[in-house]
C-alpha cells in the first residue's frame, strides 16, 4: 500500500527585534515609500547578537511538535542558507536540543527553495519507509549575510524560522503532500550568491575582497527567472495532481517580493486575493518564508480544512520547486 507524507503540525519563530523601513532607509538614501512600492515590505525581524539559526529553528520546531501532539520524530531536516557553522550541519544540533539525540538529522541547502526541497525529501523518506515522522524546518539568520550599504539587498531580507511535522498516511487524506516538481539550473549560480567562504574562494590563493563576504543578487534577472520558473513549476505540479488553477484556494509562494507573487498569480490566473502573503510583516526570510507564511495563515484562520494549497518557490542555485496539498484540520495555539 502506498504511503504519503501528511502534514500534521506547524509552527514558527521570529526574533523579538522588528526593524522598520525607516530605520534602514536613513542610511541607504532610500525611503519607506520606495521600499514598500518595490518590494511590498514594511518591516522585517533581525536576530540579536548571540542568537543563531539553530535557536530560531528550535523555537519553530518546538511549536510544530506541539501542534502535531508529538515529542519526537524519526528524522529532522533543516533547510538553511545560514547554518550555525560551515561544519557540522545545524540539524543534529537542533535535534539534540529538541530532546532527540540519536535521531537522524541533516541540512538541506537550496537557498529559498530549501523548504520545498526538504518537504520532497521527507515525503520520499516516508514513502520508502525510512521514516514514519519527519520534522522539516526552514530557518535563516539572513541578516548575517547582508551588506548594510547595499540597498538592493539590505531592505529585503529578514530572519526567522518555520516548521512542519509530517507523518505517514494515506495519499487521499487531508494534509497529504504531492505531487512535487523540482528543478535547478547551475548556469545561473552567480545571480544569487555569497562569493567568499567556500572551497572555490579558499583554493584560489587570493584573500577575499570585503564585499565577497556579503550576499549579492542580480535583481532584474532574478525577478525574471523567479516568475518564469515558479509559474512553470506550478503548472507542472497542477497537471500532475490533475487540478485546475481555478480550483486553488490559496497560493503560498516563496515570499521574495510582493510583485513577484502577483506576477506568478496573474500568470496562473489565480486571483490575487488568494495569495497568502506575510512579506509586509517579515520580509524575505529565504528558506523559512513558506512555513512562516503557512503558520501565520493557519493561526489567523485563513487556511481552512479542505482548502487546496499550491506551494511554489525559487532560489539561488538556481533552484525551484512546487507541491500541492489539501489543508488538514489542525489545532491552533
TrEMBL record:
Enzyme Commission no: 2.3.1.180
Species of provenance: Streptomyces liliifuscus
One function term, GO molecular function aspect: beta-ketoacyl-acyl-carrier-protein synthase III activity
InterPro entries the UniProt entry points to: ACP_syn_III_C, ACP_syn_III_N, FabH, Thiolase-like
Known catalytic reactions: 3-methylbutanoyl-CoA + malonyl-[ACP] + H(+) = 5-methyl-3-oxohexanoyl-[ACP] + CO2 + CoA; malonyl-[ACP] + acetyl-CoA + H(+) = 3-oxobutanoyl-[ACP] + CO2 + CoA; 2-methylpropanoyl-CoA + malonyl-[ACP] + H(+) = 4-methyl-3-oxopentanoyl-[ACP] + CO2 + CoA; (2S)-2-methylbutanoyl-CoA + malonyl-[ACP] + H(+) = (4S)-4-methyl-3-oxohexanoyl-[ACP] + CO2 + CoA
Domain spans labelled Beta-ketoacyl-[acyl-carrier-protein] synthase III N-terminal: 106-186
Active site: 112, 254, 284
Domain Beta-ketoacyl-[acyl-carrier-protein] synthase III C-terminal: 238-327
Record's protein name: Beta-ketoacyl-[acyl-carrier-protein] synthase III
Record's subcellular location: Cytoplasm
Region (ACP-binding): 255-259
Keywords attached to this entry: Acyltransferase, Cytoplasm, Fatty acid biosynthesis, Fatty acid metabolism, Lipid biosynthesis, Lipid metabolism, Multifunctional enzyme, Transferase
Upper classification of the organism: Bacteria, Bacillati, Actinomycetota, Actinomycetes, Kitasatosporales
Enzyme class per UniProt: transferase
One BP annotation, GO: fatty acid biosynthetic process
GO cellular component: cytoplasm
Family according to the record: Belongs to the thiolase-like superfamily. FabH family.
Domain observations: The last Arg residue of the ACP-binding site is essential for the weak association between ACP/AcpP and FabH.
Subunit comment: Homodimer.
Pathway annotation from the record: Lipid metabolism; fatty acid biosynthesis
PANTHER family (alphabetical): 3-OXOACYL-[ACYL-CARRIER-PROTEIN] SYNTHASE 3, BETA-KETOACYL-[ACYL-CARRIER-PROTEIN] SYNTHASE III
Function: Catalyzes the condensation reaction of fatty acid synthesis by the addition to an acyl acceptor of two carbons from malonyl-ACP. Catalyzes the first condensation reaction which initiates fatty acid synthesis and may therefore play a role in governing the total rate of fatty acid production. Possesses both acetoacetyl-ACP synthase and acetyl transacylase activities. Its substrate specificity determines the biosynthesis of branched-chain and/or straight-chain of fatty acids.
Amino acid at each position: 500500500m502506498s504511503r504519503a507524507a501528511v502534514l500534521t503540525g506547524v509552527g514558527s519563530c521570529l526574533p523579538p527585534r522588528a526593524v522598520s523601513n525607516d530605520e534602514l532607509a536613513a542610511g541607504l538614501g532610500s525611503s519607506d515609500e520606495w521600499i514598500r512600492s518595490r518590494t511590498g515590505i514594511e518591516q522585517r525581524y533581525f536576530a540579536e547578537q548571540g542568537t543563531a539559526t539553530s535557536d530560531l529553528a528550535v523555537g519553530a520546531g518546538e511549536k510544530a511538535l506541539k501542534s502535531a501532539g508529538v515529542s519526537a520524530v524519526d528524522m529532522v531536516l533543516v533547510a538553511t542558507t545560514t547554518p550555525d557553522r560551515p561544519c557540522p550541519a545545524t540539524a543534529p544540533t537542533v535535534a539534540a536540543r529538541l530532546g532527540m539525540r540519536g535521531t537522524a538529522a541533516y541540512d538541506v541547502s537550496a537557498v529559498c527553495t530549501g523548504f520545498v526541497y526538504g518537504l520532497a525529501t521527507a515525503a520520499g523518506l516516508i514513502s520508502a519507509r525510512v521514516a514514519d515522522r519527519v520534522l522539516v524546518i526552514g530557518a535563516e539568520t539572513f541578516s548575517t549575510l547582508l551588506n548594510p550599504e547595499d540597498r538592493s539587498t539590505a531592505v529585503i531580507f529578514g530572519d526567522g524560522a518555520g516548521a512542519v511535522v509530517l507523518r505517514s498516511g494515506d495519499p487521499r487524506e487531508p494534509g497529504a503532500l504531492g505531487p512535487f516538481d523540482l528543478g535547478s539550473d547551475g548556469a545561473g549560480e552567480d545571480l544569487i550568491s555569497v562569493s567568499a567562504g567556500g572551497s572555490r574562494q579558499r583554493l584560489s590563493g587570493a584573500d577575499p575582497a570585503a564585499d565577497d563576504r556579503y550576499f549579492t543578487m542580480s535583481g532584474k534577472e532574478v525577478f525574471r527567472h523567479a516568475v518564469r520558473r515558479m509559474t512553470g513549476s506550478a503548472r507542472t505540479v497542477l497537471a500532475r495532481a490533475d487540478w485546475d488553477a481555478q480550483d486553488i484556494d490559496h497560493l503560498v509562494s516563496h515570499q521574495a517580493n510582493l510583485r513577484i507573487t502577483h506576477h506568478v498569480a496573474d500568470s496562473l490566473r489565480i486571483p490575487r486575493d488568494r495569495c497568502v502573503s506575510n512579506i509586509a510583516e517579515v520580509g524575505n526570510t529565504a528558506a523559512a518564508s513558506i512555513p512562516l507564511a503557512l503558520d501565520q495563515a493557519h493561526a489567523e484562520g485563513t487556511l481552512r480544512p479542505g482548502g487546496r494549497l499550491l506551494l511554489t518557490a525559487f532560489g539561488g542555485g538556481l533552484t525551484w520547486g512546487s507541491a500541492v496539498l489539501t489543508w488538514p484540520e489542525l489545532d491552533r495555539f
